[in-house]
């Protein structure tokens, strides 16, 4: 198989219609597509899968409604914020059948009409519609050409590499590997032979044969029912999620209209009453402060003077300074007795300052008012003054702060009560109850369908085990007639062939893996052997001493190399000539491992290798090493003002002055 081109129209970041040529030149297998993060590299890989598999590209259990929603979301959204009304992905490829190469073209196009999405599939072979297969089976035809499980080992990204590099086995990977190596085909042949023996044994009254045929028939019926039930479960899951979103939106409207407050009206009213009582208590406390020592606390200088007066009140005054100052003032006016010297204004000011500083005017005045107090009363007054200066101000400030906080809470509670009185909340409440009932009903139905699906899967697995047991017993039994004996020998031969084929493929896979891993790893000969489980295909690495190398002991880069080597070995072992599409495989690798992948993997991985890379993965140095293997390249340029990506021939730096990243085509 060779990919010729891919066409995208209004898909993801790709506006309008854009076509990329993917057919490599002879001897140059690599097509390099560069783009910075968010430019649309992964979108190209997604488009290839979507063109080939449609809904199946999203997973096994995806409802039709989810698929249609996915297609709507993948429509390009323009700079005006409006999505396109249609989109398409198309893929042209060569595929060999019976030694003859045919050219196929598959196009999936979808249009939106409100919330509805309509998809059309076009499949052409050598320029004409494929008429050998009914149109409604084109989906299955494409999946048989390139099974989805097999394609994930050829069309992969960094996530697939990380998935394979995990320590725990992957059941999906094991199934894909069996299909890729052709082992499941032998199993189907054994089942067909068992049916033949069953029909033959029925004519001879063989109850076991009748039972085997019934089991195979029941398994086929269960397969159909499981597939149908899986689609029902996926559809119900999507519907439940949609109804849950509707219920959430209604609840938000209900709260906005005051419905939540209405349900809590009694609680809100009790909270309001409690807040009012607290406000009243704080206001009373502040009034008591205002009628007590708070005014003194607001005049600290006066307090200090009064304290000084109390301190000196017990002392016997040397002279009545007030009377003395009055007599000096009278002397200044009357000049009696007569002054000998000539007193200037400055002399009088100096004398006044001296008298003021002797004891302090306020203290002198206060002495007269507190001098008659006894020592106990003076100590009590001093204590009150200390309390006013050190405690009263801070306590009053705290009370004011608490009062302000309580008043803010009270205003919010009053607003809730106003909202709770709205009439719109009652209408929204009915809508909310209806939405929540719908969610509950959908959840109940979904739970029931899920249980049914689990039951059907359990029944199918039980019948499959019984079928395998009977097939094994049947091939081991000696048939009486010549045809039965021949069929039995063929069954034994197939069983032996399957085992030997598996052993041969595993041995080949092990050899290829060890070779590929050591070819790519920084530590030459690090892995001497590998042991691969026959059922899970989980690999255990062995070093030169025969000891196991736990996968968890590998570095992050070595785990990436392990995954890439396994994918490479599987491709070589399968013998399938499929192209490789690799999306950003170097992001988690150091410089040495990156160089090894670029020099040794990309040029040899397949006859066609499409590499999707950022400018930091395949940089100027790596580009220089890879250039001899590159057929042509594209650069994905994202234009923010258009909110769109354009695919331009060339790589990073092409057309720039200096062009240090430029790809020089030979």
Keywords, please?
666 residues; alpha/beta; six-stranded mixed sheet; 21 helices; 15% strand; disordered C terminus; Rad50/SbcC_AAA
Query: Main beta sheet, described?
Result: 6 strands, antiparallel
Assign a percent range to the helix content.
55-70%
**Model regions low in confidence, pLDDT < 50 over at least 5 residues:** 361-368, 656-666
Overall geometric form: elongated
How many alpha or pi helices? 21
Structural class: alpha/beta
Work out the number of β strands.
Answer: 15
Average pLDDT number: 79
Question: Hey, roughly how much beta strand do the residues contain?
Answer: 15-25%
Cα-atom radius of gyration: 45 Å
Q: Strand order within the widest sheet?
A: 2-1-4-5-6-7
Distance between the termini: 26 Å
Domain Rad50/SbcC-type AAA: 5-120
Protein name: DNA sulfur modification protein DndD
InterPro entries: DNA_S_DndD (IPR017599), P-loop_NTPase (IPR027417), Rad50/SbcC_AAA (IPR038729)
Organism: Mesorhizobium cantuariense
Model description:
The chain is an alpha/beta fold. It has helices at residues 41-53, 64-73, 138-145, 148-151, 158-165, 171-181, 183-203, 207-256, 259-263, 265-291, 294-297, 300-312, 321-334, 345-359, 361-370, 375-420, 424-476, 482-520, 556-574, 591-601, 620-626, and strands at 2-11, 14-21, 30-35, 86-97, 100-113, 116-125, 128-129, 155-157, 529-532, 539-542, 548-549, 580-583, 609-613, 630-639, 644-649. α10 (265-291) packs antiparallel against α16 (375-420) and α18 (482-520) crosses α19. The two termini are 26 Å apart. Residues 361-368 and 656-666 have low confidence and may be disordered. This is DNA sulfur modification protein DndD. InterPro entries: DNA_S_DndD, P-loop_NTPase, Rad50/SbcC_AAA. It holds the Pfam family AAA_23.
């Amino acid at each position: 198989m060779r990919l010729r081109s891919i066409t995208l129209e209004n898909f993801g970041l790709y506006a309008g219609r854009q076509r990329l040529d993917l057919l490599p030149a002879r001897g140059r297998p690599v097509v390099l597509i560069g783009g910075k993060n968010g430019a649309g590299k992964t979108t190209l890989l997604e488009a290839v899968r979507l063109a080939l598999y449609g809904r199946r590209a999203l997973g096994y259990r995806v409802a039709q409604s989810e698929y249609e929603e996915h297609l709507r979301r993948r429509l390009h959204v323009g700079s005006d914020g409006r999505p396109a009304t249609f989109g398409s992905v198309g893929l042209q490829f060569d595929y060999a059948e019976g030694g003859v190469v045919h050219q196929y073209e598959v196009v999936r196009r979808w249009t939106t009409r409100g919330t509805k999405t309509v998809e059309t599939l076009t499949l052409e072979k050598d320029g004409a519609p494929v008429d050998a297969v009914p149109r409604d089976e084109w989906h299955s035809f494409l999946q048989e050409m390139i099974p989805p499980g097999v394609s994930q080992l050829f069309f992969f990204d960094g996530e697939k590499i990380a998935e394979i590099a995990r320590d725990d086995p992957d059941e999906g990977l094991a199934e894909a590997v069996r299909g890729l190596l052709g082992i499941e085909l032998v199993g189907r042949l054994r089942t067909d032979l068992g049916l033949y023996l069953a029909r033959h044994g029925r004519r001879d009254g063989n109850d076991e044969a009748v039972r085997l045929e019934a089991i195979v028939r029941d398994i086929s019926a269960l397969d159909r029912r499981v597939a149908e039930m899986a689609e029902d479960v996926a559809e119900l899951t999507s519907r439940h999620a949609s109804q849950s979103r509707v219920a959430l939106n209604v609840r938000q409207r209900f709260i906005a209209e005051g419905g939540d407050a209405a349900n809590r009206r009694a609680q809100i009213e009790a909270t309001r009453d409690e807040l009012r009582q607290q406000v009243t208590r704080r206001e009373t406390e502040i009034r008591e402060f205002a009628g007590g020592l708070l005014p003194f606390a607001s005049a600290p200088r006066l307090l200090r003077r009064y304290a000084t007066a109390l301190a000196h009140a017990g002392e016997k005054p040397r002279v009545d300074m007030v009377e003395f100052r009055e007599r000096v003032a009278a002397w200044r006016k009357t000049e009696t007795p007569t002054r000998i010297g000539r007193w200037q204004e400055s002399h009088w000011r100096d004398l006044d300052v001296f008298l003021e500083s002797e004891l302090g005017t306020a203290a002198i005045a206060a002495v007269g008012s507190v001098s008659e107090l006894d020592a106990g009363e003076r100590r009590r007054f001093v204590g009150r003054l200390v309390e006013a200066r050190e405690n009263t101000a801070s306590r009053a400030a705290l009370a004011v702060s608490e009062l302000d906080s309580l008043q803010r809470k009270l205003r919010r509670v009053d607003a809730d009560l106003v909202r709770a009185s709205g009439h719109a909340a009652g209408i929204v409440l009915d809508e909310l109850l209806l939405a929540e009932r719908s969610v509950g009903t959908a959840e109940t139905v979904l739970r029931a369908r899920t249980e049914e699906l689990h039951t059907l899967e359990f029944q199918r697995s039980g019948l499959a085990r019984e079928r395998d047991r009977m097939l094994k017993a049947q091939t081991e039994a000696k048939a009486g007639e010549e045809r039965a004996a021949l069929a039995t020998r063929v069954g034994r031969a197939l069983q032996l062939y399957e085992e030997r084929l598996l052993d041969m493929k595993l041995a080949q896979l092990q050899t290829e893996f060890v070779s590929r891993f050591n070819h790519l790893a920084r530590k030459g000969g690090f892995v001497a052997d590998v042991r691969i489980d026959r059922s899970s295909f989980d690999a255990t690495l062995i070093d030169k001493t025969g000891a196991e190398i736990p996968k968890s002991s590998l570095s992050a880069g070595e785990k990436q190399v392990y995954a890439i080597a396994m994918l490479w070995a599987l491709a070589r072992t399968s013998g399938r000539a499929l192209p490789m599409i690799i999306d950003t495989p170097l992001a988690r690798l150091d410089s040495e491992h990156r160089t090894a992948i670029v020099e040794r993997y990309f040029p040899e991985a397949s006859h066609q290798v499409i590499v999707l890379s950022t400018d930091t993965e395949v940089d100027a140095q790596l580009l220089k090493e890879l250039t001899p293997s590159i057929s042509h390249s594209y650069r994905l340029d994202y234009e923010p003002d258009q909110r769109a990506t354009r695919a331009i021939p060339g790589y990073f730096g092409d057309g720039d002055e200096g062009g240090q990243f430029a790809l020089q085509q030979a």
